[in-house]
Amino acid sequence: MASSTTARVDLDGNTIKPITICMIGAGGFIGSHLCEKLLTETPHSVLAVDVYNDKIKHLLEPDSLPWAGRIQFHRLNIKNDSRLEGLIKCSDLTINLAAICTPADYNTRPLDTIYSNFIDALPVVKYCSENNKRLIHFSTCEVYGKTIGSYLPKDSPLRQDPAYYILKEDTSPCIFGSVEKQRWSYACAKQLIERLIYAEGAENGLEFTIVRPFNWIGPRMDFIPGLMVQVRVFQGFWHALAITSSEGSLSSLWMG
Fold first, then answer.
1. Is 186 a catalytic site residue?
2. Annotated active-site residue in 106, 127, 144, 186
């Protein structure tokens, strides 16, 4: 593990200066691990925003921890807390991880799913744009929807044509199910907030990066009763991220 005091450089060889990061959803599964990495392997500071801190208590206590001066926990709900803009203003970068992203909820809690992934994210995007702060927003691979090939007849020779089933992130159409199929509420909300972020970049100069994870498995994951066995089976698999940014670049990162 690299020391946070070791000088780090970017791809051009320039020294990376310490920054302050406002991490929304820092107390969750992914946020807790990202906080750990930032505190132990970089000189950056974290303003950890969440309604719970159970998964990052080991990073907050005791005060004698080597990074004690580089992390603050702010217990707030981004839906209705005026402190959010102030935290974004005093940060160099905002990372938004807050979302309902459990498949079991998409059918049973579609309203909460849509609000969490679109409506509640609106102030974050707005404050970043108005205050000229870069935004890293975590979306989902589900914004890609279904392939064209999935709608072709089973005996169609076109099903063998890669043009109908290989995904091209920048050109493939995003095909979702009908409105009554509430399983798509998550993907649709995520895609709409992506489009809003993209529009803020195009019209108002917002600098952003959108991350589209496929699957996350690991410690501190919120397990669902009945799915424990399946989760354990997938622990050894590889998972991918698709990343797009306001500079127009897109890349895929595979992680074990």
1. yes
2. 186
